[in-house]
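Holo prediction. Input below; ligand is JFT.
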Amino acid sequence: MRLDVVTIFPEYLDPLNVSLVGKARARGPLDVHVHDLRRWTHDRHNTVDDTPYGGGPGMVMKTCPWGEAIDTVTADGYEQGAARPALVVPTPSGRPFTQETAVRLSRRPWLIFTPARYEGIDRRVIDEYGTRMPVLELSIGDYVLAGGEAAVLVMVEAVARLLPGVLGNAESHRDDSFAPGAMADLLEGPVYTKPPMWRGRGVPEVLLSGHHGRIARWRRDEALRRTAEHRPDLVERCDPAAFDKQDRAT
Ligand SMILES: N#Cc1c(N)n[nH]c1-c1ccc2c(Cl)cn(Cc3cccnc3)c2c1
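Structure of the complex:
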């Protein structure tokens, strides 16, 4: 998978050089290119914003730098043989970015992220590229950030961990909270490791039993309990029958 990120704060994306995403870049499943939007400005102040038409607070990011940037990035990608990209635009007014979105994005060969600042990007940029590629306007949650870069870090990590060869155990994201299948719409339950006793606190006996069927059922019950406690809105959406199907399959 190829990822391009265009931003006025390229250093904000430095975390993409470490940990899981950093290893995926070094090993190959992920090819990440971060670009400074100001490279495509031509005035002495490297101007990327201007006052909004119609008045109002804040500034709007100008069309020309974004247009030149996306044109250059797409031309470079095509030159290197990439398939058609999707443009991912973080915005507080976007569709929710969910685990399902991450799964769908992880199946694409090339994503171009355009995290912006100020009050957002001039709408004509989205309209222009919407005629050439899928444009996904996405929000990572119902809270307000100062710009899109943090959202890109979240989305890239959620997508990268789904790529083949990135997680050590290919099965480990099967039981993630929100993962499609039996765990869809369920939160993960508690986890334990050695020592068996810590400050007078033991480990649930079932986890030491070696009885895989009972362990799987205990984990399912704990996931349901935790979901009911922390996310009651999800409980009616989950399908307990999916567990029985998955239990029988394991
Ligand atoms: N994704 C996401 C997301 C989220 N979940 N919260 N905030 C954002 C987000 C994403 C992109 C931008 C850009 Cl560009 C500018 N701002 C600041 C802003 C704040 C309020 C109203 N208008 C603009 C962004 C906030």
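The chain has eight helices and seven strands. That is the main takeaway for now.
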